[in-house]
Amino acid sequence: MRRAGLGEGGSGQYVASGYSVYEEENQHLQEGLRAKVNALKSLSIDIGTEVKYQNKMLDDMDSDFDSTGGLLGATIGRVKQLSRGSQTKLLCYLLLFCFFVFFVLYWFIKLR
Q1: I need a surface site. Which of 3, 9, 26, 108 has the fewest CB within 10 A?
Q2: Element of type H or E holding 80
Q3: 3-state secondary structure (DSSP) of residue 73
């Protein structure tokens, strides 16, 4: 039984051809590994781009919520000011109307 580089009196050409098979196989495996590394690199770049985009969207949402919170705070302040006055009956009607509108909108959206 002969193997590359192990036989007695083996020719140098036989040994070199055995190594060239290994070299070709290594080259083939190297190319496959290079392709996988490039795919992972492009995937990680795409993930980084998506993360930056999502962070920008979250920052925009945070500023929108802050502005909405300020608007709601001012509105609640006005409602409290109304409740301190003698217009409590009007305030009750206003709150009942708001609940009615929200209920109708909820019902309308639910039926869709």
Answers
A1: 9
A2: helix 12-84
A3: helix
Angle, helices 12-84 vs 88-111, to 10°: value is 150
| Identity of residue 10 | G
Are 4 and 15 in contact by the 8 Å Cβ rule? The answer is yes
Question: pLDDT of 56-112, one tens digit each?
Answer: 999 999 988 888 888 888 888 887 877 676 667 777 888 899 999 999 998 888 887
Q: What per-residue confidence (pLDDT) applies to 31? A: 96
Please give the torsion angle defined by the CA atoms of residues 45, 51, 53 and 54, in that order, rounded to the nearest 10 degrees.
160
What are the residue boundaries of the structural domains of the chain, listed by start? Answer: 15-86
Within its chain, how far is the Cα of 72 from the centroid? 30
